[in-house]
From TrEMBL:
Species: Lachnellula suecica
Transmembrane segments: none
Signal peptide residues on this chain, from the entry's feature table: 1-18
Keywords annotated in UniProt: Heme, Iron, Metal-binding, Oxidoreductase, Peroxidase, Signal
Keyword Heme included in the entry's annotation: yes
Lineage, broadest ranks: Eukaryota, Fungi, Dikarya, Ascomycota, Pezizomycotina
Name the UniProt record assigns to this protein: Peroxidase
């Protein structure tokens, strides 16, 4: 099994490396598709990030947990899956608009987006949309759009809820809408023709619609708070609670289809069995469209899983015209989880960070990672060995979570004495610019809120034209945007002026204040005119930055 997976990676990785950084691949923040793919790989391979709110599958991020007496029937994984549907379904395929574009983040107040998230302060304005987006904000950076997070949320939910921990074919590069899209999420009471028209508008046939609904209605259920006319009092806890779509609401599987067809368990769920005929939308979709033919074809576990992954992938890939999506995210077995250049007080350049590897349990874990550097003069350095690998803690919310097998971190810290231009791991390579870089050990983030950053950068002195040479620093910060809880990554520029020299470098310094904080992490890069540009470095102290806290 593992060998097969690896063979697939090799094919994908070749594609990734061959991908040009073309105009379509760079967004307004000058982020390439390769950068976006790497950011998603890093999240998938950090168990404490995107995997954590949906692990285990019954976990609830923003409301009481299942064994709590105040449990309300919330399930974060189910909300994340449903969010994909509610964002996707208002696509207009012939106009080339909508789809997975995070316009849903502006649409939380619409009756069509009702869904439970317990909120004692506003009991009748419940919406699973804001809770979903706020969950993503915990890990948000300029590299991952909210629309890519919505897609990644489905991938993460399936990794933890599908017993096979199957990774969906996920691409990166979705661009966020800046305002609400059209209304049009079909509600149960809207009837079959409205549902058919909505799916057709989004490019989905009747067969696709049946498959999408059957796949979506495997996790979670219908909530008393939102649909009191469907959900009986018997299933509720203190007036809340959910009537599940099947007997295994915390497992992504074909149980809902089986129970619909043989009448056992939940009998296909409340949208089939409710005595209120108006609300029997799942029954109409499965039965009245093609007399159960499509649903029967997906009744085996294998057919269900394969059909669902294909239909979910089509939902994720429904994006506005002009959006350029990346190749499929592996994740690759070897990546740089974090790396940065720094200068010691003696002016020596140090390149350090962590290499990450994941590997199936049937293969032994290498004691060290091996890599080399591309030399500016051509060719590569001799092989370099990292420090000893450290097995990553695989416990998430009290359970073992290993969707990619054991993950090992290999720290490295190299004194750089020759001119290098890249670091190379197996099927992974990252450019290094020794001419110009942010110096994290001399930079800091203030303790005010929102913070300001003192940025110091090192430019090779031979590239400093005159005493008046300045650098342009850019802060990419998560700005508050009206009517959405999603941040909008926004730039603020600042000028860095020369301060002193250190070794072969001249140190430049500047201060940049973050205007507000819409939830997420900030990055900074520096430029010398149009000839030199540094890597973007994490400036927030949360999440492994090496900026000092407090200036
Ligand atoms: C005409 C089509 C559909 C209708 C009328 C419909 C209707 C509903 C309703 C009424 C609920 C209960 C919400 C609540 O009480 O919190 C629900 C839940 C859900 N729906 Fe759909 N749905 C449709 C299609 C889909 C599709 C295509 C997906 C696939 C992604 C999906 C995924 C979900 C999920 C995962 C839940 C459970 C949410 C939770 O437990 O919090 N639905 N749906
Ligand atoms: C979708 O776009 C087409 C072409 O612009 C338009 O004619 C049609 O009315 C749109 N559909 C909806 C439901 O808005
Ligand atoms: C959007 O793309 C589709 C498919 O490539 C094409 O049929 C349609 O004409 C495009 N619409 C616009 C407005 O560019
Ligand atoms: C919420 O709605 C329920 C019934 O729909 C109503 O009884 C209750 O008074 C409402 N609560 C508030 C705070 O508006
Ligand atoms: C489709 O399945 C449902 C639920 O099992 C059943 O009630 C209905 O009669 C079936 N329809 C056909 C045409 O067999
Ligand atoms: C059935 O549901 C519809 C739509 O929500 C509602 O208007 C109607 O009152 C319900 N009927 C009963 C008997 O609860
Ligand atoms: C299933 O669909 C058929 C054809 O539309 C209809 O005659 C039948 O009553 C439906 N069955 C149920 C249980 O709704
Ligand atoms: C590698 O990661 C570990 C764990 O997060 C961290 O403590 C360590 O400082 C990192 N090492 C380097 C060289 O960045
Ligand atoms: C993977 O990690 C677990 C502990 O979390 C360990 O028992 C197992 O032996 C590891 N597998 C390999 C191949 O080292
Ligand atoms: C390394 O080589 C590159 C390309 O020839 C050059 O731009 C750069 O200034 C050199 N760096 C150093 C530290 O000499
Ligand atoms: C450098 O590392 C890359 C990636 O592991 C490898 O393909 C290449 O063969 C190495 N170069 C040398 C000279 O060993
Ligand atoms: C969701 O958040 C947005 C932005 O703060 C707000 O405008 C909207 O009213 C919220 N909706 C709900 C249901 O919480
Ligand atoms: C920052 O500077 C860059 C490069 O000159 C420019 O493209 C960008 O628009 C500037 N941003 C702001 C917010 O002024």
């Amino acid at each position: 099994m593992f060998l097969l997976t690896l063979a697939c990676f090799l094919l994908q990785v070749r594609g990734l490396n061959g991908q040009a950084l073309d105009a379509n691949g760079l967004d307004t923040n000058d982020i390439s598709l390769d950068d976006k793919v790497l950011a998603i790989e890093r999240l998938l391979l950090s168990p404490g990030t995107i995997i954590f709110p949906v692990t285990p599958c019954d976990f609830v991020l923003n409301a009481p947990l299942i064994n709590n007496p105040d449990y309300t029937g919330d399930q974060t994984a189910a909300q994340w899956v449903r969010t994909v549907f509610h964002d996707f379904i208002t696509a207009n395929i012939s106009a080339g608009t909508g789809g997975l574009d995070a316009s849903i983040s502006f649409e939380a107040d619409r009756p069509e987006n009702l869904g439970l998230v317990f909120n004692a302060a506003t009991p009748n304005t419940t919406s699973f949309i804001n809770a979903t987006i706020v969950g993503f904000n915990l890990f948000s950076t300029v590299f991952v759009s909210t629309a890519d997070f919505i897609a990644l949320g489905l991938a993460a939910s399936l990794l933890t809820c599908d017993p096979d921990a199957r990774m969906i074919q996920l691409k990166a590069g979705r661009i966020d809408a800046t305002k609400a899209g059209p209304i049009g999420v079909p509600k149960p009471q809207d009837g079959l023709s409205v549902a058919k028209a909505a799916f057709a508008n989004a490019g989905f046939s009747q067969t696709d619609m049946i498959q999408a609904v059957a796949c979506g209605h495997s996790l979670g259920g219908v909530h008393k708070l939102n649909f009191p006319e469907i959900v009986g009092n018997g299933v509720t806890v203190g007036g809340f609670g959910a009537d599940h779509f099947d007997s295994t609401p915390f497992q992504f599987d074909n149980q809902n289809v089986k129970e619909y067809l043989d009448g056992s368990g939940q009998g296909g769920g409340p949208l089939v069995t409710t005595t209120n005929v108006t609300m029997q939308s799942d029954l109409r979709i499965f039965n009245n469209t093609d007399g159960n033919a499509t649903i029967k074809a997906m009744s085996s576990a294998t057919a269900f899983e394969n059909t669902c992954f294909t239909i979910f992938e089509r939902m994720l890939n429904t994006v506005p015209n002009g959006t350029h999506l990346s190749n499929v995210v592996g994740p690759r077995p070897w990546i740089l989880m974090e790396s940065h250049l720094d200068l010691t007080s003696a002016g020596v350049v140090v390149h350090s960070g962590n290499i990450t590897n994941y590997i199936g349990s049937s293969t032994s874990i290498p004691a060290t990672a091996t890599y080399n550097y591309t030399l500016a003069t051509g060719g590569t350095s001799a092989t370099v060995k990292s420090q000893a690998g450290v097995l990553k803690d695989d416990h998430v919310n009290g359970v073992v979570s290993l969707p990619f097998g054991n993950i090992t971190w290999y720290p490295f810290s190299d004194t750089i004495t020759t001119n290098i231009t890249a670091i190379n791991l197996p099927f992974f390579s990252q450019a290094i610019n020794l001419n110009l870089f942010v110096v994290p050990s001399q930079s800091c983030m203030s303790t005010s809120s929102p913070p300001s950053y003192t940025v110091r950068a090192a430019l090779l002195t031979k590239l400093v034209a005159s005493k008046t040479t300045t650098l342009l620093g850019t802060l990419y910060y998560p700005a508050v945007q009206p009517l959405s809880v999603a941040p909008k990554y926004t730039q603020v520029n600042t000028t860095l002026t020369s301060l002193t020299t250190l070794g072969a470098y001249t140190i430049f310094s500047g201060v940049v204040a973050q205007p507000n904080n819409g939830g997420g992490l900030s990055h900074i890069d520096v430029r010398l005119g149009t000839s030199q540009r540094s890597a973007k470095i994490l400036a927030s102290t949360f999440g492994g930055s090496f900026f000092k806290s407090g200036c």
